[in-house]
Design a protein that fits this description.
InterPro entries: MFS_dom, MFS_ERD6/Tret1-like, MFS_sugar_transport-like, MFS_trans_sf, MFS_Trehalose_Transporter, Sugar/inositol_transpt, Sugar_transporter_CS. This protein is mainly α and 489 residues long. The protein has two domains: 181 residues, MFS general substrate transporter like domains (Growth Hormone, Chain: A); 211 residues, Up-down Bundle (Growth Hormone, Chain: A).
Length: 489
Amino acid sequence: MKILMRADTHVSFHLPDDVPAAKCTFSQVLAAFSVSLGSLVVGFSSAYTSPALVSMTDRNITSFEVTPQTASWVGGLMPLAGLAGGICGGPLIEYLGRRNTILAIAVPFIISWLLIACAINVAMVLAGRALAGFCVGIASLSLPVYLGETIQPEVRGTLGLLPTAFGNIGILLCFVAGTYMDWSMLAFLGGALPVPFLILMFVIPETPRWYVSRNREERARKALVWLRGKEADVEPELKGLLRSQADDERQARQNQLMELLKRNNLKPLSISLGLMFFQQFSGINAVIFYTVQIFKDAGSTIDGNICTIIVGIVNFAATFIGIVLIDRLGRKILLYISAVAMTITLFVLGGFFYCKASEMDVSNVGWLPLASFVVYVLGFSLGFGPIPWLMMGEILPAKIRGSAASVATAFNWTCTFIVTKTFPDMIESIGGHGAFWLFGVVCVIALFFVIVYVPETQGKTLEDIERKMMGRVRRMSSVANIKPLSFNM
């Protein structure tokens, strides 16, 4: 292991042996930690319906009726609102700044949870989920952009997966707390989570790249000094940012939509959209949103809430395995492993539900749903969970990064909504076995998509990646890339 130290902070950071040594300052870690707390809130929001719907649909606990159709909207409304947030997030981070946009969503996040916690009817729950989803949509774009523009490229594989880790902590926290709390108390806990995130966001600066885009060179210099340390020479990096900005300004300004549709830009955008599609249609959010219910339907011999907590722990632990492996094996190998693991487990899970639907005795394999879920979540968290977000920042050209990332994020939330909203209907029409087999077929197609279309970006500079993707090289700062957000999933 390489040990990275700054004498003035006395803090050491460990990276895999084959990651180049870099001066990873405490300030960068603080920035990554602060942003990742937002990812924790996102993870908690995504997992909320899994434990909450069980008590919410119980008339002995809830004073108002929540029908199965309404419950599907409680689960599906958040990603639908996330789509709107993703669309709005692109312009907001350009005009307000990355940090100000993140600050702007913290208070609405708290309000959304209070609406749910104090709900006296279904409308209040749906309003809270819609507001939370809108904030999640903005967060899923603005948090990774901030992180990408502040972390040095040498540590992007390590610190870049920190939001994924915190997102999975949020999921695990929700699963564990949901075992002991009803839907209202769980929402109160959700309302407390954005508070430390809000406080820490006041501590960290705006990104140097955004300052440069607003011709605030001195502010950009101060931000770089804060991030890189007082002893660091930030002038070369600042000059690189200025050159990159000048390059963009020299080029004729065109309609952003027309810019996105250029042939050279369509290739990286389509790869990013493809990865987002397969990420969601692998069925992960159906699993996360309805985990408790799935285990109940499976008739598992292990308590559903315990199964859910185990799945959450595996999801959390897998992120750290990914941190170790991503700079060793590369992106494509992890995507291969991810697709194969999910395919096998989804077909096995489908087989279990088919046997149960056929009234075969499955009591002697009651452990099988949990084992399949564990391997499935492990496979997803190693590859198709974080890597589509990581590669979105690596392969999208700097000139269209804001608008293209907004399109990719909105598309991701559209897919999330379709999967989560239709999953209960899918189970009703083709059965649990049919739903899982369908997701398995999608994972098979995903494997071939990665083999044929997805480039390997491990160890490559952004200039090398752009040369391969577009046949040209532009000068641009290596820190201007978007990092993964987690969770999601």
